[in-house]
UniProtKB/TrEMBL annotation:
This is Pentatricopeptide repeat-containing protein. PROSITE patterns: PPR. Belongs to the PPR family. P subfamily. It comes from Zingiber officinale (Ginger). It comes from the Eukaryota. Residues 1-29 are annotated as: Disordered.
DNA sequence: CTAGGGTTAG
């Protein structure tokens, strides 16, 4: 397999494992049947007549019956001279279907006939790359556009904002970009402002998001459903459901009634909070309130039930969906598939996947990930690797999630080196989660040098560490008693945001080691950056003081000074 | 051409 360099293939790994298991299997064969019930059930060769399995099959049948005919022209058709607007229409179409590579190809082809494409074409291209998270290309292409004398439009800038809206440094970027935008004669429009609001909400800066909304009104731009929906989502992701509900209610009053998207966000949050009755109520009132639940709404609701372990309810919703003449989508199938996996029907799920072609659906990477993730939890490494193999055989591209599952499975079986090999392969686009997974495993194995090396690799590959990464690094440094480095590491984490639980964690290490001076350094580091010292840091100080012997501490003056500053006396 | 929602991983 091409993605593993100089290392045995997964099938070899699978063989190695099954070799190791063979004596065990033999032993079981000869022992009384009582032991056999501790073994996983063998994969069932035939589909069982289980009600949920047949419901899933019915959903598949409905899915394949209602599948639209391919709306797209086949990629790679021979170049022919087309008008730029025809190219743009084609590119938009491929961009919407998520095929950024085909958009790039079309753009290149367009340049053969029209060496300087117009702003619209550039926008479409850049947007498709932004959607595909290919940020480096976004910036390069924008510069290229400007360099070739094509004036960016307001939409160009909005796309730039979008490409950064998940970046931890979004706000700084946006506040730099907007003046530039105005300077070049592009006034921010409703969509630019909405993008700004979306980014602020993602960064949990709700007050500022409201501020932008006020600014919009001042600029005589009316906020739209989209603008408010971003804020609803901001509240929901912070768990502030009451405020989200209140805002949704208020939207009706100000002539901006919440639509199906707004409700989807609210329903997802309600499900997560276990307020399923509230969801039911919203659905009952939907007609009266002027919105109509679509497939996505049911998917969200079904997924909510699935996550809460209410598998029967998920399948009940499938029936409701069908009676409302809504067709299952590939996402619906995936959620139901996940339900089967959770409902101890893993082996049936495996069987379903094996017969997908016969049943009438093309499983995508999500189906494989769901099943592999289940097998990973069950320590069924061989099954994981076999599915990983099947995926390649079918020509499905694994995503970073697939790799994370494989890495976890390998690590769980004690094969850390093999997991590391996956990382050395260039075709594996590791993301933060994948890195965190392996980092965590090396940490658990106390291979701190490997942790460090991997962290350096991560930085060099421009993967921005997140909270979990810093957590592992802080733990690692503390385990090595490098407390000052741990503090430095924490202070670096402030670049991506302030996480109180990281402070608490670091403090616990410092207290445990009786590192009073380091606690003071940390507290001062926080204060001089204008951050509020949490009560946990305060109590950690007291605890460390007690441990050290209050009177003996030479640092008492510094503690008092800190406490005074905390209380706002100085 | 551009703004808000759904499935998987730590």
């Amino acid at each position: 397999m091409p993605w593993i360099s100089n290392s045995p293939s997964p099938s070899a790994a699978a063989r190695a494992v099954s070799r190791r298991r063979r004596p065990f299997a033999r032993a079981v064969k000869q022992s009384p049947p009582v032991i056999q019930k501790f073994l996983p059930p063998p994969p069932s060769p035939e589909l069982s007549s289980d009600a949920k399995v047949s419901a899933f099959c019915a959903a598949v049948a409905e899915f394949s019956r209602c599948r639209p005919a391919s709306p797209l022209p086949s990629p790679g058709s021979s170049p022919s001279r087309r008008h730029p607007s025809a190219y743009n229409a084609l590119m938009t179409s491929f961009s919407r279907s998520g095929d950024a590579d085909e958009v790039i190809r079309l753009f290149r082809e367009l340049m053969l006939w029209h060496p300087i494409p117009n702003a619209l074409c550039y926008n479409t291209l850049i947007n498709s790359l932004a959607v595909a998270n290919r940020y480096d290309h976004v910036d390069k292409l924008f510069d290229e556009m400007v360099a070739s004398g094509v004036a960016p439009t307001t939409a160009s800038y909005t796309i730039l904002l979008k490409s950064r809206s998940f970046d931890p440094n979004f706000i700084e970027y946006a506040y730099k970009l907007i003046p530039l935008m105005v300077q070049s004669g592009c006034q921010p429009d409703t969509s630019s402002y909405t993008m700004l609001i979306a980014g602020l909400c993602r960064a949990r800066r709700m007050d500022e998001a409201w501020g932008v909304l006020d600014q919009m009104v001042e600029d005589k731009l009316l906020p739209t459903v989209q603008s408010y929906t971003c804020i609803v989502q901001g509240y929901c992701s912070e768990g502030r459901i009451k405020e989200a509900k209140r805002l949704v209610a208020r939207m009706e009053g100000i002539g901006c009634p919440p639509d199906v998207v707004t409700h989807g966000i609210l329903i997802e949050a309600l499900c997560e909070a276990g307020e399923f009755h509230e969801v039911e109520k919203l659905l009952m009132e939907s007609e009266k309130k002027g919105w109509k639940p679509n497939e996505v709404i049911y998917n969200i609701y079904m997924n909510g039930f699935c996550k809460a372990g209410k598998i029967d309810e998920s399948f009940r919703l499938l029936e409701v969906m069908l009676t409302n003449e809504l067709h299952p989508t590939i996402v619906t199938l995936n959620i139901l598939f996940e339900c089967l996996c959770r409902d101890s029907k893993v082996w049936e799920a495996k069987c379903l996947l094996e017969r997908s072609a016969q049943l009438g659906w093309d499983p995508d990477v999500f189906f494989y990930n769901s099943l592999m993730s289940r097998f990973c939890k069950m320590n069924e490494l061989v099954c994981v690797l076999k599915l990983f193999n099947d995926l390649f055989k079918k020509g499905i591209n694994p995503d970073s999630c697939t790799f994370t599952i494989v890495i976890r499975s390998l690590c769980k079986a004690g094969m850390l080196r093999r997991a590391k090999c996956l990382f050395s392969n260039s075709s594996f686009a590791a993301d933060v989660v994948a890195f965190n997974t392996l980092l965590h495993e090396f940490y658990r194995a106390q291979e701190f040098n490997e942790v460090r090396a991997l962290y350096i690799k991560m930085i060099s590959e421009n993967i921005i560490p997140n909270k979990f990464t810093y957590c592992i690094m802080i733990d690692t440094l503390c385990r090595e008693r490098r407390y000052m480095d741990a503090i430095d590491c924490f202070l670096r984490s402030l670049m991506i945001g302030f996480f109180p639980d990281l402070v608490i964690r670091l403090n616990n290490w410092l207290v445990k080691a009786g590192k009073l001076r380091e606690i003071l350094n940390l507290a001062e580091g926080l204060l001089c950056r204008g951050l509020v010292i949490d009560v946990s840091v305060f109590s950690a100080l007291i605890r460390a003081l007690c441990k050290e012997g209050y009177c003996k501490s030479n640092d008492l003056d510094r503690v008092c000074l800190l406490l005074e500053r905390m209380l706002g006396m100085k």
